[in-house]
Design goal:
Layout (H helix, E strand, L loop, with lengths): L5 H10 L13 E12 L7 E13 L3 E13 L4 E12 L5 E10 L2 E13 L2 E6 L5 E5 L5 H13 L4 E6 L10 E7 L3 E2 L19 E11 L12 E8 L4 E7 L3 E12 L10
Antiparallel strand pairs: 1-2, 1-15, 2-3, 3-4, 4-5, 5-6, 6-7, 7-8, 9-10, 10-12, 11-12, 12-13, 13-14, 14-15
Length: 276
C-alpha cells in the first residue's frame, strides 16, 4: 500500500538523454511504519487490522532510483483472521525513461499474485511488457513513473503551488493501466513533537525541518470528471525536502489505515559525477 506540466516533463524526457532533474533531492533511506486501522465501513468486513511497512529507497541522479516496499498486515473479520504480505520492487532510470517493477503478494503464506515487467517511454506513450507464464505487451498513454512523480510534486511544493495533477504509472495492481493523480499541497510547517504512534528513533533529523502536508488522490483514467469522481486510493502525509514521509494516512474505498514512522536509517550515498 506516490511536476512542471506533465507535457513539458515528457517532452524533455523524450528529447534529452540528460539525468532526471531532482533525483539528487531524494535521501537514500530505510523507513519503518507501524500500521493501525483508522476506520472501516461495515461493508469492508474488517473488525481489526494492523501491520508494518518497510520502505527502502536507494540510488541517485546518476544510477537511477530503486525502491523496495514490504507491507505485512494482520486482518480480523470477526469470523476469521489472516495475514497478507505484499512485496514490491521498482527501478527508474536516471532520465526517467525506463521503469521496471515486480510485485509478489501472499495470503497466509500462500502465493496470491506475482507480476513482473518493464515500462519504457515511447514517442506516443509508454510500452509495458509483462514477463512470466503469460507475457503480454501493452501500449499506454504518456505518464510519469513513481520517483519522477514524487519529484514533480516536490517541485510544485517548493515553488509555493498548492495543487498539481499528472498521469502516473507505478506498476501497482495488475500493472495494466495509467492512473490520474491529483495532489493538494499545504503550507510548510515544522512538527517538533512526536505524533501519535511515533517513536523517537523514527523522527531522527526531522524535528527541526519543514514539511508540506500533502494529499495525493488517484483516479481511474476512465472517470469523466476527476474533480467529481471518487478516488480509488488516497494518501495524506507530511513530505520533507529529502523525500521522507511521515504521519501517513492511507484511504481505500471502504477503510483507512494510519501509518506512523517508528524507525529510519539513512544510507551513505557518494555523489555521482554528471557527464558534461
Amino acid at each position: 500500500m506516490m511536476k512542471l506540466s506533465g507535457a513539458l516533463v515528457l517532452s524533455v524526457m523524450l528529447t534529452s538523454p540528460a539525468f532526471a532533474t531532482g533525483f539528487e533531492i531524494l535521501a537514500p533511506h530505510r523507513a519503518v511504519y507501524e500500521v493501525k486501522l483508522k476506520e472501516a465501513e461495515d461493508r469492508s468486513g474488517i473488525e481489526a487490522m494492523d501491520g508494518r511497512i518497510v520502505y527502502e529507497l536507494r540510488g541517485n541522479e546518476c544510477e537511477g532510483i530503486a525502491i523496495s516496499y514490504r507491507f505485512v498486515t494482520r486482518i480480523n473479520t470477526g469470523r476469521e483472521q489472516f495475514v497478507t504480505d505484499q512485496q514490491s520492487a521498482s527501478y527508474e532510470s536516471p532520465d526517467g525513461s525506463e521503469f521496471s517493477f515486480s510485485t509478489k503478494s501472499f495470503v497466509n503464506d500462500q502465493p496470491d499474485q506475482n507480476i513482473k515487467g518493464t515500462a519504457n517511454r515511447a514517442e506516443d506513450g509508454i510500452i509495458v511488457k509483462h514477463d512470466g507464464a503469460e507475457p503480454r505487451k501493452l501500449e499506454l498513454e504518456d505518464s510519469l513513473f513513481t520517483s519522477s512523480h514524487l519529484i514533480e510534486v516536490m517541485k510544485k511544493a517548493i515553488a509555493g503551488e498548492t495543487f498539481t495533477s499528472h498521469k502516473v504509472f507505478d506498476g501497482s495492481g495488475e500493472a495494466d493501466k495509467v492512473l490520474n493523480s491529483a495532489s493538494v499541497i499545504g503550507k510548510p510547517k515544522v512538527v517538533e513533537e512526536l505524533l501519535e504512534g511515533e517513536e523517537k528513533e523514527g523522527v531522527t533529523g526531522l524535528k527541526s525541518q519543514e514539511a508540506w502536508p500533502v494529499t495525493m488522490s488517484y483516479f481511474n483514467t476512465n472517470a469523466d470528471n476527476t474533480a467529481e469522481a471518487l478516488p480509488i486510493y488516497e494518501a495524506s502525509f507530511l513530505l520533507y525536502r529529502n523525500g521522507v514521509t511521515r504521519d501517513l494516512t492511507m484511504r481505500y474505498t471502504d477503510y483507512a489505515l494510519k501509518a506512523s514512522l517508528t524507525d529510519i536509517e539513512y544510507f551513505d550515498q557518494p555523489p555521482c559525477e554528471l557527464e558534461n
